[in-house]
Structure prediction request, 224 residues.
Amino acid sequence: MPDKTVPVLTIDGPSGSGKGTISRAVADALGWHLLDSGALYRAVGFAAGMEGLDLSDAEAVTRCAQTTKISFRDPKDGSETRVIVNGMDATGEIRTETCGAAASAIAAIPSVRAALFDKQRSFRKTPGLVADGRDMGTVIFPDAGTKVFLTASAEERAKRRYKQLKEKGLGVTLAALLREIQARDVRDAGRAVAPLKPADDATVIDSTGMSIEAVVAAVLQLAR
Ligand code: C5P
Prediction:
């Protein structure tokens, strides 16, 4: 049973809002654990793809979510956290747009979300947890002491993502990314279960035009 006395800081928001970078920096500053819940959905999307499943087959995808073994490994040299899916290092694969779209599709299935419920809560360990996702403050950790909803304009988010993918040498166009981000926003906000929306008690931070440092400082200010 996760310990309810362990503090949790939730950072929810749409893709490309900078949640990943901000959550990592805030967790490091506080010396807390980090839950990248999007990576769990991406890992299930990846595993479903490996098994050749039809992503609209709710029963098969749910079984996949229940049985897929997902773990995170932090390399000693401080480089990017490795995501291990069924024993295979899928760190690079799960970050592709294909896996992002698969994650978004399977995340709309209620029984898939239920299958990941306990796994997400098990990350709550001393001295504290920073939880990054879409429904961290609304569904998974409704009792979190600090809740942030991080957003930015779709154009700004597409530009950031474009830069990231370019650096990785992946060929994409800005217009295609913007379309993809807008489509995913609509899907994530419109789904019946755990739609993307700020918790009533969340502080909304619009990071359009803000530096990473300024956003991190604003979040830490809320936590203290
Ligand atoms: O945050 P990230 O882009 O890695 O998440 C991938 C997809 O997983 C999102 O588009 C969303 O559909 C889904 N997701 C979710 N709930 C979460 C985290 C991610 O539905 N807590």
